[in-house]
Amino acid sequence: MRFTSTKEVLLKGIQGVQTVIDPKAVQPILSHILIESKNDNIVLTATDFNIGIVSILPIKPIMTGAITIPAKKILEIVKELPDNETISVSVKKNNLVSIECGKSLFKIMGLPEEEFSKPPEFKDKNNITLKQNKLKTMLRRTSFAIGHDEIRHVLNGILFVIKPTYLRLAATDGRCLAVTEDKIQLPKTAETKFILPAKAVDELDRMLADSEEEIKLFLAEKQVSFDKGSKKLISRLIEGEFPNYEKVIPEEAKEKIVVARAPLLAAIKRTALFTSHDSMFVKIDVSRDKITLSKNDPHMGEARVELEAQYKGKDISIGFNPDYLINLLKNIDEENIYMELVDPAKPGVVRIGDEYVYVVMPRQPS
């Protein structure tokens, strides 16, 4: 195999697939990128056995073939090459890969293509088409609520619920729950659900653009693929039953607290400066048209921040882990948020119309 490329194209391709590689991989082949010629393009593939990323580069090969190269080393080499020089990559005998650029020459020992475990191919049936920017927003609104549970593995990902009239995503770690829904028209046969692992969620988010370009979702038994043409992600799914999240969403409260998102985020961050590992909560006092956030620690001192709000209901005092509120407020864009706080022992709720709901359990002083 032999091909030439600009630094920009080759570097972008390598960076786009190498993120899936596990730096602690025991098997040497899992630290490699597969480089192959296919349909007049150069195709890069990386995998950790559970997740695979394939990137198609607009490079016409001079000679066809395939080889695997250590991902870290080729990334380091290409990064250091000059921007305005053509890079030539060729495979010699005994899996020796030669990289030439100007007066620089590098030789790397690769491994044969046969040792590499390629991700499966998906047929065109059983697929749906989604807007990339919509899906990216939905991931951002839910991914921060993914759990990290060594026992309940079903919490370690995002639940996708696909129906003919909507796509819904849900994530929970047992202390908070984020659910978002996009009302779209899908084929009548599009009705399924699956749990996408957290690592695949991160890779999918990197892959998606903030545009209305489309991406196809292919579903097979225990695996899913997201394909946007020039790049695709293939992932194993988490097996098991996701918790019945709908039953923990409270009925909508009559009285809502309307407060500006950015000032509330800043106030929580300031108050949280006085939290500690043993006392991870801030107190929120809500009264008529006012919210007061406070934290008192006998060893450090006290923080207190007051905000204007729109509220006509009864006075409420409640405590929350500030991280759960900060994560929410960082990942939504609304200028104002609508909070529902009804009792110190009941969860707090934030809703955005009928497309998003966030539920968080209160935290009592320890």
Structure description:
The chain has 366 residues and is an alpha+beta fold. It has 3 domains: 2-115, DNA Polymerase III, subunit A, domain 2 (DNA Polymerase III, Chain A, domain 2, Roll), CATH 3.10.150; 128-247, DNA Polymerase III, subunit A, domain 2 (DNA Polymerase III, Chain A, domain 2); 250-360, Roll (DNA Polymerase III, Chain A, domain 2). The chain has 6 helices and 24 strands. It has helices spanning 7-18, 71-80, 132-142, 198-207, 261-271, 322-330, and strands at residues 2-5, 32-38, 41-47, 51-57, 66-70, 87-91, 96-101, 104-109, 127-131, 157-163, 166-172, 176-183, 192-197, 214-220, 223-227, 231-236, 257-260, 282-287, 290-297, 301-308, 316-320, 336-340, 348-352, 356-360. Strands 5-2-3-4-16-15-14-9 form an 8-stranded antiparallel sheet. Strands 13-10-11-12-24-23-22-17 form an 8-stranded antiparallel sheet. The chain has a 4-stranded antiparallel sheet with strand order 1-6-7-8. Strand 11 and strand 12 form a beta hairpin. Helix 1 (7-18) runs antiparallel to helix 2 and helix 5 (261-271) runs antiparallel to helix 6 (322-330). The chain is elongated and about 80 Å long. The protein starts with a strand and ends in a 6-residue tail after the last strand. The relative contact order is 0.11.
Topology of this protein?
Elements: E1 2-5, H1 7-18, E2 32-38, E3 41-47, E4 51-57, E5 66-70, H2 71-80, E6 87-91, E7 96-101, E8 104-109, E9 127-131, H3 132-142, E10 157-163, E11 166-172, E12 176-183, E13 192-197, H4 198-207, E14 214-220, E15 223-227, E16 231-236, E17 257-260, H5 261-271, E18 282-287, E19 290-297, E20 301-308, E21 316-320, H6 322-330, E22 336-340, E23 348-352, E24 356-360
Antiparallel strand pairs: 1-6, 2-3, 2-5, 3-4, 4-16, 6-7, 7-8, 9-14, 10-11, 10-13, 11-12, 12-24, 14-15, 15-16, 17-22, 18-19, 18-21, 19-20, 22-23, 23-24
Helix pairs in contact: 1-2, 5-6
